[in-house]
Amino acid sequence: MKLRGTLSVLPKEAKILIFCFLITLSFGFYTGLIYVRENTNASFSGIEEHYLGNENNEDATEMKFKKPKKEIITMVHNHVLSLSIVFLIISFLVLLTDIQPIFKKILVVEPFVSLLLTFGGIWIMWSGVMWFKYIIMISGILMTITFTTSVLIIIFQLLRKQ
Predict the structure, then answer these.
(1) Which of 86, 108, 123, 157 satisfies CB 3.0 to 4.6 Å to 91 for a cystine?
(2) pLDDT by residue (tens digit) across 5-62?
(3) Residue 46 lies in a domain
(4) Does 108 fall in a domain?
(5) 130: in domain
(6) Residue 76: is it exposed, middle or buried by C-beta count within 10 angstroms (0-12/13-18/19+)?
(7) Residue 1 pLDDT level (bands cut at 50, 70, 90)
């Protein structure tokens, strides 16, 4: 079964559906990034403070407490399950493009690795391995780059004339 390049030959209605889905999905994804920036200031220390609290920091302008175990478990569970489905759909659409196979492999595998490192990393950091905040931020950035690249490639291929 040939998948390569089949995105551009889909009926117009299917292309419109995929395009609307990608725009809506991107809105949700980037809203999540705004939430992360608001809560962590997009910094290593902000990540640590958001999950582990800042009770010992006398200079803190806002008091934060360490997240309870149940909250961490729920957050990791919800994000891993929902983003796995998001990246499954995006990856399937990437497989329908006509980009080079090596780029497809990267765009298909990378978000799942980053998903595990980001949210597994939050759990690991919460458990006491402080240096994992660097892994969390790097993998989160890579996940975002992969998401953006994949969505742009899919949209360009949808808009391309047969």
Answers:
(1) 108
(2) 788 889 999 999 999 999 999 999 999 999 999 999 889 988 988 898 887 777 777 8
(3) yes
(4) yes
(5) yes
(6) middle
(7) low
Report d(CA 11, CA 6) in Å as an integer: 10
- Please report whether residue 75 resides in a domain: yes
pLDDT tens-place string over residues 60-113: 778 888 899 999 999 999 999 999 999 999 999 999 999 999 999 999 999 999
Lookup: tokens for 146: 């992969």
3-state secondary structure the chain: CCCCCCHHHCCHHHHHHHHHHHHHHHHHHHHHHHHHHHHHCCCHHHHHHHHHECCCCCCCCCCCECCCHHHHHHHHHHHHHHHHHHHHHHHHHHHCCCCCHHHHHHHHHHHHHHHHHHHHHHHHHHCCCCCHHHHHHHHHHHHHHHHHHHHHHHHHHHHCCC
Number of domains composing the chain: 1
pTM, full prediction: 0.90
